[in-house]
Specification:
It is built from two helices and no strands. It is mainly α. It starts with a helix and ends with a helix.
Length: about 160
């Protein structure tokens, strides 16, 4: 190669060397700026992730609290319903016992009310048998005694 060519190449290199160095510095500045921006974005993303995690934790705690409160309310309602059902069952038993007591009282009252009437009926039947026997004896006597027969016919007993 000729000397001239070498000199031309060398001069071109020397001319472009500061330009490339300047361009390199500019590129380096831009890369540093991009790295800083990425660093800021990563910090923002970390902050956003932290906020999301905090909100998730708060939401989980709130959901658990609501779940516990709902469970407690359901248990309270179940206990209340059970207590009311037991009260209703007790009331039913009291009502049933009252009805049996009333039926027993009615039967006892009927028996005690009817007992004097039954006793009186038996006494009347006994007296009727006595009267029938007495009439039979008087009829027998009337057959033997004509005057007595006439008195019985007058009274309408024969």
């Amino acid at each position: 190669m000729s000397r001239m060519k070498k000199l031309l190449i060398l001069s071109l290199i020397l001319i472009f060397l500061p330009i490339t160095s300047f361009a390199q510095d500019e590129i380096m500045e831009k890369l540093n700026k991009i790295e800083q921006d990425i660093s800021v974005l990563k910090e923002g993303q970390n902050y956003t992730n932290k906020r999301i995690d905090d909100l998730d934790n708060k939401l989980s705690i709130r959901i658990n609290d609501l779940d516990n409160k709902l469970g407690t309310r359901i248990d309270d309602l179940d206990n209340n319903l059970s207590r009311r059902m037991n009260d209703l069952l007790g009331f039913f038993y009291v009502l049933l016992a009252g009805m049996f007591t009333l039926v027993g009282f009615i039967l006892w009252d009927r028996r005690t009310t009817l007992a004097p009437a039954v006793k009186q009926m038996e006494e009347l039947k006994q007296k009727e048998k006595t009267v029938d026997k007495l009439l039979e004896a008087l009829n027998i006597y009337a057959r033997k005694e004509p005057r007595f027969k006439e008195a019985m016919q007058t009274a309408g007993l024969l």
